[in-house]
């Protein structure tokens, strides 16, 4: 929309670069071009604003296929006004000199024209296509048919309109039909999902089995190694016991040999001691015998009185010490009697 301002009873128009302005006064074209800026009088000016930028028109319409199934077509047509003068002469692009707004609805008229033309060509191609084919290749077929049909439409160049591009966004059947058509695909997808789930479970089970087998093999190997370890420990213990027994035997033999040697030495020493003692006893006996013999020889040569005296001396030497002697009259009488009887003899 053009920007119009007031100054002292006059108007000033400033248009956008994408807006083509046509200014007539008294049937004469004074200004013609995009992005203009000029002063004018509201009472004598006839202004038209034609957009020259690319515009997109979204359209939705229903069609029927060859097998009598309703489908909804969603398309977008990009167009532009290539000849503003022709468009301004065919459609009402006049604007209010006070507000700059269109007095009519020219873009709606263009949209109706394009929609009806595109719908006509789309209906033509879908009417000869079954629903299954339309859902598979219908989008491309409808797009090509609309593009070709709009390019050949004589009303568009006559209105100054150029079609830039055509896009068919979607082609959808009725909800019930769409659900019915989705069912086999969903079933197939579900089957594929179930098969993938089963395969994944099978792979998981196989992996668990492999893991269990690995664990079992590990346990078997550990048991085998533990058995070897027990055997080795038994062998080591047996060998250690044998070595201890051998060492004990060696120590016992050594102790026995030492005991035997000590016994032999003790016996030898006892024998020697006994021999020495026997020899000493023999020598002592012989010495005593010689002394006794000498004593006897000496006493044999001495008289009886001397022997008695020696005997008394010997007896006196062996008697205990006598501090006092008490002689009773009886003993003294008997002793004196005996002494008196021995004296005269």
UniProtKB/TrEMBL annotation:
Superkingdom as given in the UniProt entry: Bacteria
The record ties this protein, via InterPro entries, to: Band_7 (IPR001107), Band_7/SPFH_dom_sf (IPR036013)
Q: What SUPFAM superfamilies does the database record attribute to this sequence? A: Band 7/SPFH domain
What Pfam families does the database record attribute to this sequence? Band_7
Q: Which residues form the Band domain?
A: 32-197
* Protein name per the record: Band 7 domain-containing protein
Query: Where does this protein come from, organism-wise?
Result: Streptomyces viridochromogenes Tue57
